[in-house]
Design goal:
The chain contains six helices and no strands. The protein is an all-alpha fold. Helix 4 packs across helix 6.
Length: about 160
């Protein structure tokens, strides 16, 4: 076996100093922007549905509330892939799926408890915490922050 074949490709070298700051800030900005976009898209879809169905006496449902969730997931997926590739946050297959698939829990809890803008901050913290799990020295910090956010959101959603 060659030495290169047994190297671990799933854990890139941890960035340091300014590189880490750029990557973490970029992940936070990406998370905040995608959270704001998703919340705004879904709120506008439900507002449109309410306006259109305001005068209806029977059951009324437009397709936009139903389509807004998968559309926001698709936009977030493309945004995360592009942003994390530009920022050098790798491996994408270990960072992007948890960022995308588990984010609705803390975002929904924050949105229902305190509103839109604090939910945007939670989205930024969530994206940053999951991005930190990509590097071994910061993995415990990232996992602890994601676990705290998930536990808090589950408690808030189950109350």
């Amino acid at each position: 076996m060659h030495a290169t074949s047994i190297q671990r490709h799933d854990e890139p070298a941890a960035p340091s100093g300014g590189t880490l700051a750029v990557r973490v800030t970029g992940a936070a900005a990406t998370g905040a922007a995608l959270t704001y976009l998703s919340i705004h898209l879904m709120q506008e879809a439900y507002a449109y549905d309410a306006r259109v169905c305001a005068d209806e006496t029977s059951v009324c449902l437009t397709p936009w509330p139903v389509l807004s969730f998968p559309a926001s997931l698709a936009i977030a997926l493309v945004g995360l892939i592009v942003a994390y590739r530009l920022l050098g946050i790798r491996p994408g297959l270990k960072v992007i799926p948890p960022t995308l698939l588990l984010a609705p829990f803390p975002l929904d809890a924050a949105l229902s408890a305190v509103g839109k803008w604090p939910a945007v901050v939670v989205g930024a913290v969530w994206a940053t915490a999951v991005a930190l799990t990509a590097w071994r020295p910061y993995r415990i910090l990232g996992l602890s922050a994601t676990a705290a956010l998930l536990l808090t959101s589950f408690i808030m959603l189950c109350r």
